[in-house]
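A.,

Following up on our hallway conversation. Structure tokens first:
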């Protein structure tokens, strides 16, 4: 008993608790997640406990059981605060990782037929290589220059569109082709077995610039976020078309979020050259092109972006423990054959993904899918913004940091979390969808070949910009669809 009750050991025990308490408070202050009023309250509570333990340890007899029990509890509390400090530190690092500048990588491949005698890039100078110089000339010029630096001069034959390019490869008019992987999905629309019939013998990588944010005080000023999703699995860094396109206007003062859905096939001039194309194709030229083209549509600066894919979505829904979403109609998804009932549906990650991908069950196809995607985002916001998320906050944040790209800074993210924790507001989520008429029109990215598009209604775009202007001016926005959270 004397070994454990001597005054030196007691001083060490109380000192350890004091040091770990200070460490935890400093970590929490630096991360800036916890509102200052809460942080002060926690600090005061820790101090009261420490003072109480001091008296119980030092103002009792050396052989007092109460003194010994208090010392044991003090050590347990110190261990808890060490663990808590680690998780707070990791949370801070996770936020910093999530807000790091992201660079998209463009992959440009040299492709041959599967049974071609060409085994590697060194054999290219002896053969004719097809390419398209008129679509995204900057990337194609970069790729061909890099190839020639590595293998020497090559014989290039120019084509006007992907149909002519792939037909030339299949007929062996050319022995190889140069293809930006961002365009592979366009090629496969016409040539379904293209990937199975060919192989890549060489690839050039090109890093694209990060998208800079137009920062505002996110807890005081309204801001716009471009939400981009692509229909791929795996990593996010590759340049690709954007199949889910949504603009979120957020007003932290009125606690309103306006979700505006832009159909993927919206027919609009690309910002970079004024050529008419599907909006989804803007992503092929990089995230900045999608943002710039969207800015042209709504006539507003886009402050931030959030980008994800199928893998991201599944991981996020898994991390928050599933999702409850309201469906206005009953249907069965083509993927997975999941039965969705009218009203509330409790969905796991795979069911949720099938829900937001479904379009064939609806008469208005992509428009209905866009509305369901809005409902899903509203449901995720509702769950993440609720007190229930606190129990899995660390794992959710860790998942988001690895699955989502954004140019929101760590300070912006911390400020938003702090605002939500201190106020716990219930967000009013309104929605609107840009409408248009289905037509067949030539698309720049397809070499002028006509494709199914949605020609947007001028009145619909004007209504979208009117709603955005109202929200940005701190006016209450009420759309025909109403509050998606109701």
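Then the amino acids I'd put at each of the 486 positions:
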């Amino acid at each position: 008993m004397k070994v454990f009750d001597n005054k030196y050991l007691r001083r060490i025990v109380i000192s350890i608790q004091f040091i770990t308490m200070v460490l935890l408070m400093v970590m929490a202050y630096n991360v800036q997640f916890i509102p200052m009023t809460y942080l002060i309250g926690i600090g005061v509570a820790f101090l009261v406990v420490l003072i109480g333990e001091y008296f119980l340890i030092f103002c009792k007899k050396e052989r007092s059981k109460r003194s010994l029990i208090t010392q044991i509890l003090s050590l347990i509390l110190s261990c808890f605060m060490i663990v808590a400090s680690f998780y707070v530190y990791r949370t801070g690092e996770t936020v910093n990782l999530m807000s790091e500048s992201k660079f998209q990588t463009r992959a440009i491949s040299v492709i041959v037929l599967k049974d071609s005698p060409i085994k590697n890039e060194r054999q290219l100078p002896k053969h004719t290589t097809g390419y398209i110089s008129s679509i995204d000339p900057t990337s194609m010029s970069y790729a061909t220059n890099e190839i020639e630096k590595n293998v020497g001069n090559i014989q290039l034959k120019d084509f006007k569109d992907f149909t002519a390019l792939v037909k030339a490869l299949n007929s062996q008019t050319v022995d190889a082709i140069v293809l930006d992987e961002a365009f592979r999905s366009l090629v496969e629309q016409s040539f379904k077995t293209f990937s199975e019939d060919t192989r890549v013998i060489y690839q050039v990588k090109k890093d694209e610039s990060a998208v800079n944010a137009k920062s505002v005080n996110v807890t005081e000023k309204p801001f716009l976020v471009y939400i981009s999703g692509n229909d791929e699995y795996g990593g996010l860094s590759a340049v690709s078309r954007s199949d889910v396109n949504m603009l979120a206007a957020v007003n932290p003062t009125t606690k309103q979020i306006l979700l505006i859905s832009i159909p993927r096939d919206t027919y609009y001039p690309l910002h970079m050259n004024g050529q008419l194309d599907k909006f989804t194709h803007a992503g092929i030229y990089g995230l900045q092109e999608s943002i710039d083209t969207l800015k042209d549509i709504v006539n507003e600066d886009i402050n931030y972006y959030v980008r994800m894919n199928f893998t991201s979505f599944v991981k996020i829904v898994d991390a928050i423990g599933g999702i409850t979403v309201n469906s206005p109609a009953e249907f069965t998804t083509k993927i997975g054959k999941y039965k969705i009932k009218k009203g509330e549906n409790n969905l796991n990650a795979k069911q949720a993904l099938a829900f937001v991908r479904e379009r064939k069950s609806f008469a208005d196809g992509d428009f209905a899918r866009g509305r369901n995607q809005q409902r899903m985002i509203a449901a995720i916001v509702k769950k993440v913004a609720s007190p229930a998320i606190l129990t899995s906050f660390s794992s959710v944040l860790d998942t988001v940091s690895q699955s989502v790209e954004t140019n929101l800074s760590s300070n912006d993210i911390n400020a938003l979390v702090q605002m939500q924790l201190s106020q716990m507001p219930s967000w009013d989520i309104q929605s609107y969808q840009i409408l248009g008429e289905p037509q067949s029109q030539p698309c720049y990215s397809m070499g002028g070949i006509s494709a199914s598009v949605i020609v947007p209604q001028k009145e619909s775009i004007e209504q979208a910009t009117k709603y955005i202007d109202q929200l940005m001016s701190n006016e209450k926005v009420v759309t025909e669809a109403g509050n998606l959270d109701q």
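The longest helix spans residues 65-98. Curious whether your intuition agrees with the design.

B.
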